[in-house]
Amino acid sequence: MAMGWESCLARGGRFATVLALVVFAAWPISGRGDDLPAGDDERPDWAAITLLGDLGGSRTRLSDAGISIGLNYIGEVQDNLSGGINRGPLAEGRIELTVDADLEKIAGWTGGAFHAGGYNLHGRGVTGSELGNLLGVSNIEATHTTRLFTLWLQQELFDAALSVRLGQLAADDEFLLSPTAANFMNGTFGWAAVVSANLLSGGPAFPLAAPGVRVQVSPSDNIAVLAAVFSGDPAGLGGAPAQLRNRHGATFSLDGGAFYLSEVQYALNPGAAAVGLPGVLKLGAWYHSGDFADQRFDTGGLSLADPASSGTARNRRHDYGIYGVADQMVWREAGDGDQGINLFLRAGGSPADRNLIEFYVDGGAGYKGLLPGRDDDVLGLAVAYARSSGDASNLDEDARRFNAIASPVRDYEAVVELTYVAQLKPYWTLQPDFQYVIHPGSNIANPKDRSGTRSIDDAFVIGLRTTLKF
Questions:
Q1: How are beta strands 162-169 and 428-438 bridged, if at all?
Q2: SS3 letters for the chain?
Q3: What are the residue boundaries of the structural domains of the chain, listed by start?
Q4: Which pLDDT belongs to residue 41?
Q5: Interatomic CA distance for residues 175 and 162, integer angstroms
Q6: pLDDT tier at 22, thresholds 50, 70, 90
Q7: Does domain 5-31+66-469 have CATH number 2.40.50.180?
């Protein structure tokens, strides 16, 4: 049974006390980082923006030579206090190492750049262990491993009006992005569930990148057109779960057809000198040439729930979808360019016969600099809604009829997230987070219910994340 609110509050009391102590302890620390001094020749002041500083001058020497090395850590603890499948606190973390090279400085290659990035992923998250939901509670949750992520070369031409990137790429680095949505911890506010739940192995996005090519054309300061093609299945063939099929990121899979993605971006009032409030509008579409399983019918046209069914889903050739993004500052504090309120809205859809989610929408707000003396902190509130495909819901109705059991019928999953990103130092943030997950798994049966008639209860998750830039 779901935990009562009294028990829920009792379990959360100690967690809330820790959060309060951390916030009050951090209060005197200035959150601003944009007025940090630069070194000679406008070099970064490494001692101010990273925890380990210049490392005896080695960072400055590497930067002068065209090489930048980044080391970041995200650690978090989350606790499902109510509902879900299981409860209790879980911890996880991600160490990220990146290497970027300016090939013009290194080898005289004008407009050339190289990038490599990888992760060490450890711990367990509540989505896989306690909720079984589609809108992943944490955007760093993944199978524990050490994995190569992205590896690419880039060429810029015509004063960066044309950019071509080739290698192992992540679509969520450049597509479907909202700057305001990036403040939230739930994974759907990054690579949205309308693609992550529908594409093979979740598509070319964290934690699995894929071989591909991306072209960007920027004819003006406020217009950009991006187009890319990726390998259709970043995990490659096999029967194991996707992240185990490509556990270390070195499969370089060319399986599963091809995934095409395009996006047009229009920036409103770009640049520091613009008079109006900044924003961005994006319109995107995708097409996948691979094979997808029908959500309801078998190869003979019978419902997959029919006892006479072959149990093999009808094959659907190709898949596609569209989406849009709007992100806009709606109010700016006097005398400061980036403090104020930003709103975002994203929506997308896909065919119901071959996709788990046919319609998706999310939106929310971020307020930067709400509290006096905390100019770089961000308070955020967001909501996401993912509607199950009509065919998946009809399959559940078929199962109820054939099995004569009042089992749950998939309909939708939604999440509400309240978060606060506290910039304690330019290299250190602390983020308390609260999420309420409605219909985990889109109203699927609770695996602990032997009768098969009860769905997973709505869940209330609290969390605390810290991010360090070394």
A1: unpaired
A2: CCCCHHHHHHHHHHHHHHHHHHHHHHCCCCCCCCCCCCCHHHCCCHHHHCCCCCCCCHHHHHHHHCEEEEEEEEEEEEEEEEEECCCEEEEEEEEEEEEEEEHHHHHCCCCEEEEEEEEEEEECCHHHHHHCCCCCCCCCCCCCEEEEEEEEEEEEECCCCEEEEEEEECHHHCCCCCCCHHHCCCHHHCCCHHHHCCCHHHCCECCECEEEEEEEEEEECCEEEEEEEEECCCCCCCCCCHHHHCCCCCCCCCCCCEEEEEEEEEEECCCCCCCCCCEEEEEEEEEEEEEEEEEEEECCCCECCCCCCCCCEEEEEEEEEEEEEEEEEEEECCCCCCCEEEEEEEEEECCCCCCCEEEEEEEEEEEECCCCCCCCCEEEEEEEEEEECHHHHHHHHHHHHHHCCCCCCCCEEEEEEEEEEEEEECCEEEEEEEEEEECCCCCCECCCCCCCCCECEEEEEEEEEEEEEC
A3: 5-31+66-469
A4: 54
A5: 17
A6: very low
A7: no
Interstrand relation of 457-469 and 145-157 (parallel, antiparallel or unpaired): unpaired
The pTM (predicted TM-score) of the whole model is 0.90
Residue 353 CA to chain centroid, in angstroms?
25
Q: Which two tokens stand for residue 390?
A: 């009509």
The backbone torsions φ and ψ at residue 16, rounded to the nearest 5 degrees and listed phi first, read: -65, -35
Percent of the chain with pLDDT strictly greater than 70: 91
Q: At 269, list the tokens.
A: 């009032």
Residue appearing with tokens 């290698």: 167
Q: Supply the pLDDT for residue 24.
A: 38
Structure tokens at 146: 């050490």
Residue 271 token pair: 């640049």
How far CA 275 is from CA of 111, 328, 365, 366, in Å, comes to: 32, 14, 22, 21
The mean pLDDT value of the chain amounts to 91
Query: What pLDDT, on the 0 to 100 scale, is given for residue 188?
Result: 98
As a whole number, mean pLDDT of residues 173-181 equals: 98
